[in-house]
Amino acid sequence: MPRTRFKKKPIQTIPTTRVSVIVTTADQKILLVKHRKGNRQYWVLPGGRLEYGETFFECAVREIQEETGLDIEVDDLVFLSEAIAPDRSRHIVNVYLTAHVVGGELRVGDEPVLAGVEYMPLDELDKITLFPPVGRIVIDSLPKATRGSIKYLGNLWV
Fold first, then answer.
1. CB-CB contact of 37 with 111 (8 Å)
2. Nudix hydrolase domain spans which residues (predicted)?
3. Is the four-CA dihedral 151, 152, 157, 158 of positive or negative sign?
4. What domains, with CATH codes, occur in the chain?
């Protein structure tokens, strides 16, 4: 019987930039999106890949609309992190922004990976599978995060 040959996934040579959006409510809930890949399910902060020519803030507005149906206004850049695969085949730079809802209706977007969207109590973040695992950081830092702990200078192309 001939062996099945699989194509190897190409190794990335440039990091992927992902924008994640932290939207909270006055009653201490946070907006999360459930992903389903095969038989795996996990939660993520809404957001996605930064497109060429797009600012972090523009990406946040677009991704939230696509994934949740909500319209947002971005408040601030609050965290940065990296995720590098142990074999160095993938490198993701995560940019975290805070935002607030200004309109729209909560719904699950059309992407096949999207399995749900909901506001979850902040104190539940430690009890769920959240990728990347930033739940505790968000809980501990959120009161300070909206105070401009990182200054975003915007697009400085001259």
1. no
2. 15-146
3. negative
4. 16-141 (3.90.79.10)
* Prediction pTM value: 0.85
Joined tokens for residue 111: 């992407």
Are the C-beta atoms of 11 and 89 separated by less than 8 Å? yes
Rounded CA separation 70/151 (Å)? 26
Residue with the two structure tokens 């924008």: 19
Beta strands in the chain (DSSP E): 16-23, 29-37, 40-44, 47-49, 70-84, 91-104, 114-121
pLDDT tens for the chain, 158 residues: list them.
555 554 566 666 899 999 999 999 999 999 999 999 999 999 999 999 999 999 999 999 999 999 999 999 999 888 888 888 888 888 899 999 999 999 999 999 999 999 999 999 999 999 999 999 889 888 887 766 555 556 665 555 54
